[in-house]
Amino acid sequence: MREVRERCVWSQRITHRDLVPYLIEESHEVIDAVENGTRDDLREELGDLLWQVLFHAAIAAQDPTDPFDIDDVAATLTEKMVRRHPHVFASETATTPEEVLVHWNAAKAAEKRTRRSVLDGIPRGMPALALAQKVAGRAAGVGVDVAGAGVAAAAEAGAAPAVAAPAGSVPTTEAELGDALLALVAVARAEGWDAERALRERLRRVEDEVREAESRP
Questions:
Q1: pLDDT for residue 167 is more than 50
Q2: pLDDT for residue 155 is more than 50
Q3: Left, alpha or beta for 158 (phi > 0: left; psi -120 to 50: alpha)?
């Protein structure tokens, strides 16, 4: 990577921002290899994703004011993983996955003391569905019922469902959930709505509700 950065005229001009589209693309290619590819595909795509990490670290190493390199990245990661696994590297005990998560979340909370909201730290660039799942989890922690709020908001607005939901239609498996989401996307397409924007705008209202709940004494 060092040689490429020093000797390739294209690589010399690349910045962190320039690399973002490639990072997104390579991440999705890893996902595709996990879900649909072969072992050879996965090995290749993991290498491509690793190259993005190395590339960012090489750019960071040349920063004139606050440089760091791949060794610094690895050291920071090592320190974090040691802190978050006290049942492995210290004297704590965890015999179930749930107990592991207790230790993990406690360590993470200690690291993020400066955060003022449970919403802080959620990447805004996440796809809307992934963002919704993350926000819903954080909202539940402060007593905001996202599902209930969505139903109530629709009722207050007098919104009638474009497609009547049959009794017992609540998904009970991931496959059924996929069918339900696809059906909603089909409704959005038929109505000329932007499904991604609709969910993001609803999430903004959920975030307002979360921050309001956090501000209460």
A1: no
A2: no
A3: left
Pull the structure tokens for residue 139. 């909202």
Longest pairwise C-alpha distance within the chain:
65
- Three-class DSSP category at 68: coil
- 161-180 core/surface letters (b: 16 or more CB in 10 A; e: else): eeeeeeeeeeeeeeeeeeee
For the residues 100-104, what does the mean pLDDT come to? 94
Question: How many whole angstroms separate alpha carbon 8 and alpha carbon 55?
Answer: 12
Burial 44-56 (b: 16+ CB within 10 A, else e): ebeeebeebebbb
Within 8 A by CB and 6+ apart from 177, the residues are: 171
Q: What are the residues whose beta carbons fall under 8 Å from the beta carbon of 53, sequence distance 6 or more?
A: 70, 73
Question: 11-61 pLDDT, tens per residue?
Answer: 999 999 999 999 999 999 999 999 999 999 999 999 999 999 999 999 999
Alpha carbon of residue 117 to chain centroid? 17
> Which pTM does this prediction carry?
0.71
DSSP 3-state percent helix, strand, coil across the chain (nearest 5): 70, 0, 30
What DSSP element (H or E) covers 126? none
CA 134 – CA 128 distance, rounded (Å): 10
